């Protein structure tokens, strides 16, 4: 990708993920075994009032659709050196479908690594009702051509 072709402030829908109860339970068993992710009764008695997906599940779904999108576009995926911020603003429940949008917010060439740039990404996940359920900001190292 050419550095000049990296468009800033142009939202790109990268995909959607449907959260089933079975998938929520499976993810929770393997990665985030908290009662409100694993047990319907315990979840109903919690402040969530019912079963909810792990925040990490919503983040993993974002990563999955982003990687699939990048592969489908035939571009190289970048490398993330970490996150600046991540927020889970609303619970994701069984039956919800979350659509993820990525937006490049800033870019700069790396003087120390010719052929590479850091691009600041903002990701937003919105459920089927239009409510934001997930936001994330973080840098991505991407190979560039000059």
From TrEMBL:
Residues 14-108 form the MaoC-like domain. It comes from the Bacteria. This is Acyl dehydratase. It comes from Oharaeibacter diazotrophicus.
């Amino acid at each position: 990708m050419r550095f000049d072709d990296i468009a800033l402030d142009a939202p790109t829908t990268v995909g959607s993920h449907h959260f089933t109860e079975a998938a929520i339970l499976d993810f929770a068993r393997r990665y985030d075994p908290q009662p409100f992710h694993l047990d319907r009764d315990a979840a109903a008695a919690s402040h969530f009032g019912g079963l909810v997906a792990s925040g990490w599940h919503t983040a993993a779904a974002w990563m999955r659709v982003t990687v699939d999108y990048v592969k489908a576009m035939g571009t190289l995926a970048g490398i993330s050196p970490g996150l600046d911020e991540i927020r889970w603003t609303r619970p994701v429940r069984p039956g919800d479908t979350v659509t993820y949008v990525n937006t490049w917010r800033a870019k700069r060439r790396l003087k120390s690594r010719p052929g590479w740039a850091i691009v600041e990404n903002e990701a937003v996940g919105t459920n089927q009702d239009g409510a934001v359920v997930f936001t994330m900001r973080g840098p991505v190292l991407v190979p560039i051509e000059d």
